[in-house]
Specification:
This protein is of the alpha+beta class and 144 residues long. The protein has helices spanning 13-24, 31-37, 79-93, 108-116; strands at residues 5-7, 43-48, 52-59, 62-70, 98-104, 120-125, 135-141. The longest helix is centred in the middle third of the chain and has 15 residues, at 79-93.
């Protein structure tokens, strides 16, 4: 059975924050900070049962995944791939030609997913996640 899609909005900030907390622990975003993202009109996202979410922003011809996560108990079921697809499609509808994201260089499961989805390395941010923990900036064209 396919998980129902919930279109993210400030009204579901508590739900999104709960998923974020389950994925990222102490580094998670609060419901207030998630709700505040929507004030610009540039942020969009989705949630999937049983526990996945993505938030992204589109500006001009570029879009960026701000955060994506699937709760541990729901991983390896295709939710993250589906969330990426939803975000990429919406970014394209909003006029973005390229989708960017950052990921910890040592996060092999995420890197495998992103590369399989067509993302390629474009830059590195040294010590972005703390001393010795670099971030990779990845990009994927939305139109070919």
């Amino acid at each position: 059975m396919t998980a129902p899609v919930i279109t993210a909005s400030p009204l579901c900030a508590d739900l999104l924050a709960g998923v974020h907390r389950a994925c990222f622990g102490p580094a998670a975003w609060s419901a207030a900070s998630i709700a505040a993202l929507f004030t610009t009109g540039l942020v969009f996202g989705y949630a999937l049962e049983p526990g996945g979410m993505v938030l992204a922003r589109a500006v001009a011809d570029e879009a960026e995944i701000l955060t994506i996560g699937v709760v541990p108990a729901a991983r390896r079921q295709g939710l993250a791939r589906r969330l990426l697809g939803l975000a990429a499609a919406e970014a394209g509808r909003r006029g973005a030609a390229t989708l960017f994201l950052e990921v910890a260089a040592d996060n092999e499961p995420a890197l495998c997913l992103y590369r399989a989805f067509g993302f390629a390395d474009c830059a590195i941010r040294r010590d972005y996640y703390g001393r010795g923990r670099d971030a990779l900036l990845l990009k994927r064209p939305l139109c070919e």
